[in-house]
UniProtKB/TrEMBL annotation:
Residues 40-89 form the F-box domain. Pfam families: F-box (PF00646), Kelch_1 (PF01344). PANTHER family: KELCH MOTIF FAMILY PROTEIN, EXPRESSED, OS02G0202900 PROTEIN. Transmembrane segments: none annotated. It comes from Brassica campestris. Keywords: Kelch repeat, Repeat. This is F-box domain-containing protein. The keyword Repeat applies.
Length: 274
Protein backbone atom coordinates (compact mmCIF):
# COMPACT_ATOMS: atom_id res chain seq x y z
CA UNK A 1 0.00 0.00 0.00
CA UNK A 2 1.44 3.31 -1.04
CA UNK A 3 2.21 5.74 1.78
CA UNK A 4 2.12 8.79 -0.52
CA UNK A 5 -0.92 11.11 -0.63
CA UNK A 6 -2.84 11.44 -3.86
CA UNK A 7 -3.98 15.03 -4.45
CA UNK A 8 -6.93 13.87 -6.55
CA UNK A 9 -8.26 11.82 -3.66
CA UNK A 10 -7.96 14.86 -1.36
CA UNK A 11 -9.79 17.05 -3.84
CA UNK A 12 -12.66 14.57 -4.12
CA UNK A 13 -12.88 14.25 -0.34
CA UNK A 14 -13.13 18.01 0.14
CA UNK A 15 -15.84 18.35 -2.49
CA UNK A 16 -17.87 15.57 -0.94
CA UNK A 17 -17.83 17.39 2.43
CA UNK A 18 -19.04 20.71 1.02
CA UNK A 19 -22.85 21.12 0.72
CA UNK A 20 -24.42 21.29 -2.70
CA UNK A 21 -25.96 24.77 -3.25
CA UNK A 22 -28.78 23.24 -5.29
CA UNK A 23 -29.88 21.20 -2.29
CA UNK A 24 -30.37 24.27 -0.04
CA UNK A 25 -34.09 24.45 -0.85
CA UNK A 26 -34.62 20.89 0.22
CA UNK A 27 -33.30 21.49 3.68
CA UNK A 28 -35.96 21.49 6.38
CA UNK A 29 -35.61 24.63 8.52
CA UNK A 30 -35.37 24.08 12.25
CA UNK A 31 -37.67 26.36 14.22
CA UNK A 32 -36.68 27.21 17.78
CA UNK A 33 -39.84 27.80 19.78
CA UNK A 34 -39.13 30.41 22.43
CA UNK A 35 -40.83 29.83 25.75
CA UNK A 36 -43.49 32.47 26.48
CA UNK A 37 -42.46 34.92 29.18
CA UNK A 38 -43.60 34.01 32.66
CA UNK A 39 -46.58 35.97 33.92
CA UNK A 40 -45.56 38.37 36.68
CA UNK A 41 -48.18 38.82 39.40
CA UNK A 42 -48.01 42.23 41.10
CA UNK A 43 -48.05 42.16 44.87
CA UNK A 44 -51.08 44.43 44.94
CA UNK A 45 -53.20 41.70 43.30
CA UNK A 46 -52.69 39.31 46.21
CA UNK A 47 -55.57 38.72 48.62
CA UNK A 48 -55.44 40.50 51.96
CA UNK A 49 -54.15 37.54 53.98
CA UNK A 50 -51.21 36.85 51.64
CA UNK A 51 -50.43 40.54 51.27
CA UNK A 52 -50.31 40.89 55.06
CA UNK A 53 -47.90 37.96 55.24
CA UNK A 54 -45.57 39.89 52.92
CA UNK A 55 -45.99 43.28 54.56
CA UNK A 56 -45.45 41.87 58.05
CA UNK A 57 -41.86 40.98 57.12
CA UNK A 58 -40.89 44.49 56.02
CA UNK A 59 -38.25 46.24 58.17
CA UNK A 60 -39.66 48.71 60.67
CA UNK A 61 -37.89 51.62 59.00
CA UNK A 62 -39.86 51.02 55.77
CA UNK A 63 -43.34 50.78 57.29
CA UNK A 64 -44.06 54.56 57.32
CA UNK A 65 -43.54 54.78 53.55
CA UNK A 66 -45.78 51.76 52.92
CA UNK A 67 -48.76 53.49 54.51
CA UNK A 68 -48.64 56.09 51.73
CA UNK A 69 -48.82 53.56 48.86
CA UNK A 70 -52.62 53.30 48.82
CA UNK A 71 -55.62 53.24 51.12
CA UNK A 72 -55.78 49.46 51.06
CA UNK A 73 -52.21 49.08 52.30
CA UNK A 74 -52.77 51.73 54.95
CA UNK A 75 -55.88 49.91 56.16
CA UNK A 76 -54.06 46.55 56.33
CA UNK A 77 -51.06 48.01 58.15
CA UNK A 78 -53.37 49.48 60.79
CA UNK A 79 -55.30 46.25 61.27
CA UNK A 80 -54.91 44.18 64.46
CA UNK A 81 -53.87 41.15 62.38
CA UNK A 82 -50.79 43.00 61.11
CA UNK A 83 -49.68 43.55 64.71
CA UNK A 84 -50.41 39.87 65.43
CA UNK A 85 -48.15 38.78 62.57
CA UNK A 86 -45.36 41.14 63.65
CA UNK A 87 -45.61 39.79 67.18
CA UNK A 88 -45.51 36.19 65.94
CA UNK A 89 -42.41 36.94 63.85
CA UNK A 90 -40.70 38.69 66.76
CA UNK A 91 -40.66 42.01 64.88
CA UNK A 92 -42.98 44.00 67.14
CA UNK A 93 -41.12 46.76 68.95
CA UNK A 94 -42.76 48.17 72.05
CA UNK A 95 -42.33 51.91 72.55
CA UNK A 96 -43.02 54.27 75.42
CA UNK A 97 -44.30 57.73 74.47
CA UNK A 98 -44.39 60.93 76.51
CA UNK A 99 -46.45 63.64 74.81
CA UNK A 100 -46.68 67.33 75.62
CA UNK A 101 -49.01 69.77 73.86
CA UNK A 102 -47.86 73.15 72.54
CA UNK A 103 -49.63 75.78 70.45
CA UNK A 104 -48.26 74.43 67.16
CA UNK A 105 -48.72 70.72 67.81
CA UNK A 106 -47.23 68.03 70.02
CA UNK A 107 -43.81 67.28 71.44
CA UNK A 108 -43.35 63.51 71.40
CA UNK A 109 -40.56 61.72 73.26
CA UNK A 110 -40.18 58.01 72.50
CA UNK A 111 -38.19 55.33 74.31
CA UNK A 112 -37.66 51.84 72.89
CA UNK A 113 -36.44 49.52 75.66
CA UNK A 114 -35.35 46.83 73.16
CA UNK A 115 -32.70 49.09 71.63
CA UNK A 116 -29.04 48.32 72.28
CA UNK A 117 -28.64 51.72 73.92
CA UNK A 118 -32.10 52.84 75.12
CA UNK A 119 -32.46 56.60 74.95
CA UNK A 120 -35.25 59.14 74.55
CA UNK A 121 -35.77 60.70 71.12
CA UNK A 122 -37.74 63.94 71.05
CA UNK A 123 -39.50 65.38 68.00
CA UNK A 124 -42.05 68.09 67.28
CA UNK A 125 -45.16 67.07 65.36
CA UNK A 126 -46.76 70.17 63.85
CA UNK A 127 -50.53 70.26 63.53
CA UNK A 128 -51.33 71.44 60.00
CA UNK A 129 -55.11 71.35 60.45
CA UNK A 130 -55.16 74.29 62.84
CA UNK A 131 -57.73 74.94 65.52
CA UNK A 132 -56.57 72.18 67.84
CA UNK A 133 -58.21 73.84 70.85
CA UNK A 134 -57.20 73.56 74.46
CA UNK A 135 -55.62 70.30 75.62
CA UNK A 136 -55.92 70.88 79.33
CA UNK A 137 -56.82 67.87 81.51
CA UNK A 138 -56.15 65.56 78.56
CA UNK A 139 -56.02 61.78 78.59
CA UNK A 140 -54.20 59.52 76.11
CA UNK A 141 -55.18 56.24 74.45
CA UNK A 142 -53.29 54.21 71.83
CA UNK A 143 -54.75 52.19 68.96
CA UNK A 144 -51.94 50.46 67.11
CA UNK A 145 -49.30 53.04 66.11
CA UNK A 146 -51.64 55.99 66.71
CA UNK A 147 -51.97 57.87 69.99
CA UNK A 148 -55.16 59.84 70.65
CA UNK A 149 -54.91 62.81 73.00
CA UNK A 150 -58.42 63.48 74.31
CA UNK A 151 -59.21 66.66 76.23
CA UNK A 152 -62.38 68.52 77.23
CA UNK A 153 -63.08 70.10 73.86
CA UNK A 154 -60.42 68.78 71.49
CA UNK A 155 -58.96 65.50 70.23
CA UNK A 156 -55.61 65.10 68.47
CA UNK A 157 -54.32 61.98 66.75
CA UNK A 158 -50.56 61.45 66.72
CA UNK A 159 -49.24 58.93 64.18
CA UNK A 160 -46.01 57.45 65.55
CA UNK A 161 -45.07 56.00 62.15
CA UNK A 162 -45.25 59.22 60.16
CA UNK A 163 -44.77 61.71 63.01
CA UNK A 164 -47.86 63.69 61.98
CA UNK A 165 -50.74 65.17 63.98
CA UNK A 166 -54.37 65.46 62.90
CA UNK A 167 -57.38 67.09 64.54
CA UNK A 168 -60.28 64.71 65.21
CA UNK A 169 -63.84 65.15 66.44
CA UNK A 170 -64.23 66.21 70.09
CA UNK A 171 -66.32 64.37 72.67
CA UNK A 172 -70.06 65.00 72.82
CA UNK A 173 -69.95 65.97 76.50
CA UNK A 174 -66.96 68.17 77.43
CA UNK A 175 -65.37 66.64 80.51
CA UNK A 176 -62.19 66.54 82.53
CA UNK A 177 -60.75 64.04 85.00
CA UNK A 178 -62.48 61.19 83.18
CA UNK A 179 -61.65 57.52 82.55
CA UNK A 180 -60.49 56.35 79.12
CA UNK A 181 -59.54 52.98 77.62
CA UNK A 182 -59.48 51.09 74.30
CA UNK A 183 -61.66 48.04 73.66
CA UNK A 184 -61.69 46.26 70.27
CA UNK A 185 -60.14 49.18 68.43
CA UNK A 186 -62.52 51.80 69.83
CA UNK A 187 -62.06 54.41 72.55
CA UNK A 188 -64.39 54.56 75.55
CA UNK A 189 -64.67 57.41 78.05
CA UNK A 190 -66.72 57.59 81.23
CA UNK A 191 -67.01 59.77 84.29
CA UNK A 192 -65.63 63.23 84.71
CA UNK A 193 -67.41 66.41 83.85
CA UNK A 194 -67.07 70.10 83.19
CA UNK A 195 -67.64 72.91 85.62
CA UNK A 196 -70.26 71.96 88.21
CA UNK A 197 -71.83 69.28 85.98
CA UNK A 198 -70.74 65.63 86.18
CA UNK A 199 -71.99 63.39 83.39
CA UNK A 200 -73.02 59.73 83.58
CA UNK A 201 -72.82 59.21 79.81
CA UNK A 202 -70.38 56.60 78.52
CA UNK A 203 -69.12 57.61 75.08
CA UNK A 204 -67.60 55.48 72.32
CA UNK A 205 -65.26 56.81 69.62
CA UNK A 206 -64.93 55.02 66.28
CA UNK A 207 -61.60 56.06 64.69
CA UNK A 208 -62.63 54.89 61.21
CA UNK A 209 -65.74 57.07 61.16
CA UNK A 210 -64.24 59.81 63.37
CA UNK A 211 -67.44 59.85 65.35
CA UNK A 212 -68.47 59.86 69.02
CA UNK A 213 -71.74 58.45 70.33
CA UNK A 214 -73.27 57.74 73.72
CA UNK A 215 -73.57 53.97 74.21
CA UNK A 216 -74.91 53.79 77.76
CA UNK A 217 -75.18 55.64 81.06
CA UNK A 218 -73.39 54.61 84.22
CA UNK A 219 -75.45 53.82 87.30
CA UNK A 220 -73.58 56.51 89.23
CA UNK A 221 -71.52 59.49 88.19
CA UNK A 222 -67.78 59.49 88.87
CA UNK A 223 -65.27 62.30 88.92
CA UNK A 224 -61.47 62.11 89.02
CA UNK A 225 -61.36 58.46 87.89
CA UNK A 226 -59.03 56.49 85.62
CA UNK A 227 -59.77 53.78 83.08
CA UNK A 228 -58.40 50.37 82.07
CA UNK A 229 -59.46 47.60 79.69
CA UNK A 230 -59.03 43.85 80.26
CA UNK A 231 -60.57 41.06 78.14
CA UNK A 232 -63.11 43.34 76.50
CA UNK A 233 -64.24 45.02 79.72
CA UNK A 234 -63.83 48.76 80.35
CA UNK A 235 -63.06 49.43 84.02
CA UNK A 236 -63.64 52.84 85.59
CA UNK A 237 -61.44 52.94 88.67
CA UNK A 238 -61.42 55.28 91.64
CA UNK A 239 -62.60 58.84 91.71
CA UNK A 240 -65.52 60.33 93.59
CA UNK A 241 -68.70 58.34 93.16
CA UNK A 242 -71.62 60.75 93.07
CA UNK A 243 -75.20 59.62 93.63
CA UNK A 244 -78.39 60.93 92.11
CA UNK A 245 -78.52 63.70 94.68
CA UNK A 246 -75.00 64.74 93.58
CA UNK A 247 -73.66 63.84 97.02
CA UNK A 248 -70.27 62.18 97.33
CA UNK A 249 -70.76 58.60 98.57
CA UNK A 250 -67.50 56.62 98.22
CA UNK A 251 -64.67 55.57 95.98
CA UNK A 252 -65.12 52.44 93.91
CA UNK A 253 -64.94 50.68 90.56
CA UNK A 254 -67.45 50.38 87.74
CA UNK A 255 -67.13 47.87 84.92
CA UNK A 256 -68.52 48.36 81.42
CA UNK A 257 -68.47 45.52 78.88
CA UNK A 258 -69.11 46.99 75.41
CA UNK A 259 -69.03 43.63 73.64
CA UNK A 260 -71.52 41.71 75.80
CA UNK A 261 -74.77 42.97 74.35
CA UNK A 262 -75.95 44.05 70.93
CA UNK A 263 -77.21 47.53 70.14
CA UNK A 264 -74.82 49.01 72.71
CA UNK A 265 -76.66 47.65 75.76
CA UNK A 266 -73.71 47.55 78.12
CA UNK A 267 -73.27 45.83 81.43
CA UNK A 268 -72.72 48.32 84.22
CA UNK A 269 -71.62 47.06 87.60
CA UNK A 270 -70.52 48.72 90.81
CA UNK A 271 -67.88 47.10 92.98
CA UNK A 272 -66.17 48.34 96.09
CA UNK A 273 -62.39 48.54 96.04
CA UNK A 274 -60.59 46.75 98.87
Amino acid sequence: MSESCNSRHFSWLMKSCLPNPSDAKSLVPIHHHANPPATVTPISSLPDDLLLECLSRVPSSSIPSLTAVCRRWSRLLLSPYFLHLRRRLGLLRHSLFAISAVDSGLFAAVLQPQSEIPSWRVSLAVCNDGGQGSLSHARAAAIGPRVYVVSRNAVLRYDSWTGTVAVRSPMIFPRKKFAIAVVSGKIYVAGGGGGSEVTAAVEEYDPERNRWEVVTHAARKRYGCIGAAVDGVFYVIGGLKIGNETSVTSRGTAAHAPNLFEHHHMLVQDATMH
